[in-house]
Design a protein that fits this description.
Elements lengths: L3 E4 L3 H13 L3 E7 L6 H5 L2 E6 L10 H11 L3 E3 L9 H9 L3 E2 L4 H8 L1 H10 L7 E2 L6 H11 L3 E9 L2 E6 L5 H16 L4 E5 L4 E10 L5 E13 L2 E7 L6 H17 L4 E10 L9 E7 L6 H8 L3 H9 L16 E8 L1 E2 L5 E2 L2 E2 L2 E3 L5 E4 L6 E2 L6 E9 L2 H13 L2 E3 L5 H8 L2 H4 L7 H5 L11 H14 L6 E4 L7 E8 L2 E6 L12 E4 L4 E6 L2 E7 L4 H8 L2 E3 L4 E6 L6 E2 L4 E7 L2 E6 L4 E6 L6 E2 L4 E7 L2
Parallel strand pairs: 1-2, 1-4, 2-3, 4-5
Antiparallel strand pairs: 6-9, 7-8, 7-9, 10-11, 10-13, 11-12, 12-15, 13-14, 15-22, 16-17, 18-21, 19-23, 20-22, 24-25, 25-26, 25-29, 27-28, 28-29, 30-37, 31-33, 31-36, 32-35, 33-34, 35-37
């Protein structure tokens, strides 16, 4: 058995590998860049080595530095994790040439599966069904256009060396083919240094089904059943599950047998994933599932397979790399229950999923489910690497149970001030088609805006928030004593949620109610409220009375203590609704404050460089007459 292991990776997967290695009594060595000097995986490992500046191309992608670190620390083996150098055959060979153990497949297997066109030819020869298409060497545009016409539109142009959705274009009509081909080739050349493409038949109701396989050095290859990764946004997986909904025993047997043949065809050793595309228009049928590609590494979504089989795939990797046979034979593996995984990313769905960086001042992750993460409260989300914060994994006896459990875990997950996709994931898990197992890779795109907007919390939670602020702060939130025709007198209140004034009818039932998802910050002058996965900053509104409320609608108050870094208007300026008035830097993030309606800047109490407190009046807009 390996005694010491260097992990040539960072973040969540590095921490995941360290946990298993530690349980097996294996000494671990971490590597880190400048940006990761204080990272969790560095502190978890028995030893850590600095390998360079923050950009990955100067640190985690420099194989020579990683091998030198392994030599210097006496590590016997190198585990590449996923991403970075995990599917780089030259690096794998360099590790072996250095006299180290490579925890992964043979370099020849990586090479065989590295180019999509060559891999498909090999799979066809091995009796693995492949998607109809052209994958030859002739890259003449006119020839490729003819091939596309023979295949039949729509078609998919794919870079042979591609991945992650890069170098990929769907073409619906022959008139668009040449332009799409040129665009695809440019992107492929820039991303992979190889502009060769293949043409595939585009599947109209596609489902992404993949099979986990495992091989050892004794000639054994087994499968650990399938996963469904059809919920994707721009070709990136969002939610994964195992097993696949709607998969019959007969189809599973045929699919998994094909995956094993694929592994045997390249003499596969270690953990690998055979990815298939299925036409789900008539359910999952063995004659409508085709090979796409092979990932010669551990997958991000491997935990769902672990949950339904009871297997630790990292432990299997380390045992196989040490020369041991597979711990279990095929007939000893079985599916037990259902598992779901959601990828929590530091990104803002409201801005087109742009990455959100900064310090995680508040990080409230679920405590009762499996959470794989490489960060903790106070960690920095860096712009240098993948923005994944964590993976939340749940399991249940039935699919619906696993979905409900995961949705509940996401509903209480709080992150601030970095934005996340937790609310988006919560709503996606509630989608009726998804819950019914009617999924395909286009579901998210079809739902569009319905998945993006975070709803406001209900009145009882807003009332409880107002009362909490009233108890903790120096001022009560604004109350509006209202009169409505044909209705009993009511009591309304106003709060500021993420800086925007929000009025609501107070709920008397919330009197004395204590919400479970509050986090007091800034000495009690503000609350973080979590509702359906969305984390909101809630502060009191300082306007008093109905008249004051009306006048105060144009008051732009500071949503939190911070520093003004830019002022874009002057007193007397005419502004339109949504126009940026100023930029506030608070909690290491920039916040743009905008005009609530068309009007004139009647009052301006802001200048660049000034420090302001929460609820300070910065700008007052008077409505245009």
């Amino acid at each position: 058995m390996i005694n010491s292991l260097l992990i040539a990776n960072r973040g969540e997967i590095a921490c995941r590998i360290i946990r298993t290695a530690r349980a097996m009594g294996i000494r671990t060595v971490a590597v880190y860049s400048d940006a990761d000097a204080e990272a969790l995986h560095v502190r978890m490992a028995d030893e850590a080595v600095h390998i360079g500046p923050s950009p990955a191309r100067e640190s985690y992608l420099v194989g020579e530095k990683i091998i030198a670190a392994a030599k210097a620390t006496g590590a016997e083996a190198v585990h590449p994790g996923y991403g970075f150098l995990s599917e780089n055959a030259e690096f794998a060979q360099a590790v072996l040439d250095a006299g180290l153990v490579w925890v992964g497949p043979k370099p020849s297997s990586i090479t065989a599966m590295g180019l999509k066109d060559a891999a498909k030819k090999l799979m066809a020869e091995a009796g693995v069904p492949v998607t109809p298409g052209y994958m030859g060497d002739n890259q003449d545009p006119a020839f490729l256009a003819n091939q596309a016409a023979e295949i039949g539109y729509p078609v998919l142009i794919k870079a042979v060396a591609g991945g992650g959705g890069k170098g990929m274009r769907k073409v619906d009509d022959a008139a668009d083919f040449i332009d799409a081909l040129a665009s695809c080739q440019r992107e492929a050349a820039a991303s992979f240094g190889n502009d060769h493409v293949l043409i595939e038949k585009y599947i109209l109701s596609p489902r992404h089904i993949e099979v986990q396989i495992f091989g050892d050095t004794h000639g054994h290859v087994v499968h650990l059943f399938e996963r469904d990764c059809s919920l994707q946004r721009r070709h990136q997986k969002v939610i994964e599950e195992a097993p696949a909904p709607g998969m019959s025993a007969e189809t599973r047997e045929a699919l998994c047998a094909a995956a094993v043949r694929a592994g045997q065809a390249v003499d596969y050793v270690g953990a690998g994933t055979i990815e298939f595309i299925a036409d789900g228009s008539e359910g999952l049928r063995a004659d409508r599932i085709w090979f796409m590609e092979m990932n010669t590494r551990l997958q991000v979504e491997h935990p769902v397979t672990e949950e339904i089989t009871g297997v630790d795939l990292v432990e299997w990797q380390l045992r196989v790399a040490s020369g041991e046979p597979l711990p279990l034979a095929q007939d000893e593996l079985e599916i037990r229950g259902w598992a779901m995984e959601a990828r929590l990313y530091a990104e803002d769905p409201a801005t087109g999923f742009l990455p959100s960086t900064g310090t995680l001042d508040v990080l409230m992750l679920p405590l009762s489910s499996r959470v794989d993460t490489g960060i903790e409260e106070g960690s920095e989300v860096s712009p240098f690497y993948d923005p994944m914060i964590a993976k939340v994994i749940t399991a249940g006896g039935q699919r619906e149970e696993a979905i409900d459990y995961l949705r509940q875990e996401l509903s209480t997950l709080g992150v601030w001030p970095v934005k996340t996709n937790a609310g988006f994931l919560y709503r996606l898990l509630g989608d009726e088609d998804f819950r019914n197992g009617d999924v395909d890779t286009g579901l998210i795109e079809r739902r569009g805006e319905a998945l993006m907007a975070n709803p406001l919390p209900p009145a009882d939670e807003l009332t409880a928030a107002a009362e909490r602020l009233e108890a903790d702060g120096d001022h009560a939130p604004a109350e509006l004593a209202g009169f409505r025709l044909n209705r009993a007198p009511s009591r309304e209140r106003a709060l500021r949620i993420n800086g925007q004034r929000t009025c609501f009818e107070a709920d008397a039932r919330a009197n004395g109610y204590v919400a479970s998802h509050f986090e007091t910050i800034d000495g009690g002058s503000a609350l973080l409220m979590v509702h359906e996965g969305a984390t909101m900053l809630v502060t009191a509104d300082r306007t008093d009375g109905a008249a004051g409320s009306a006048a105060g609608d144009g008051a732009i108050l500071s949503p939190m203590p911070g520093k003004i870094i830019a002022v874009d208007v002057a007193q007397g300026d005419t502004v339109v609704k949504g126009q940026k008035l100023l930029t506030l830097e608070a909690m290491k993030m920039e916040h743009s404050l905008t005009a609530p309606f068309d009007g004139v800047v009647a009052e301006l109490n802001a200048e660049a460089g000034a420090q302001v407190q929460v609820e300070a009046l910065l700008v007052r807009i008077e409505a245009a007459e």
